[in-house]
Design brief:
Blueprint (H helix, E strand, L loop, with lengths): L4 H32 L3 E6 L2 E5 L6 H38 L1
Antiparallel strand pairs: 1-2
């Protein structure tokens, strides 16, 4: 049975809001990383964090600002695999009972 148009529209709205929320947190994390490594957080945009070093650019700090979300995404993925894997194991053990 195909989903009704209302259910499909609701799913589309929830997906859009989820993607928007994830993007906001993503850019916020870049800004927070900039502050933590000593850069100045100049502006918060939806698709870009504007930061500036108060003197000469720090290459390691720049790398941390740019790469911290990739590492966080990888860790989140492993966490989700672990969490959902445990849930699947529990469902199989309940079915076996």
């Amino acid at each position: 049975m195909a989903p009704s148009p209302v259910v499909a529209f609701d799913a589309l709205c929830v997906t859009f809001l989820d993607a928007l929320t994830v993007q906001v947190f993503h850019e916020f994390a870049h800004g927070l990383a900039a502050v933590l490594v000593g850069a100045q957080w100049r502006a918060f945009n939806l698709f870009m964090m504007l930061g500036q070093w108060p003197g000469a650019a720090n290459e390691i700090g720049t790398l941390i600002i740019e790469a911290n979300l990739a590492l966080l995404n990888i860790a989140t993925g492993f966490g989700a695999i672990w969490l959902f894997g445990r849930a699947a194991d529990r469902r199989q053990s309940i079915v076996a009972l």
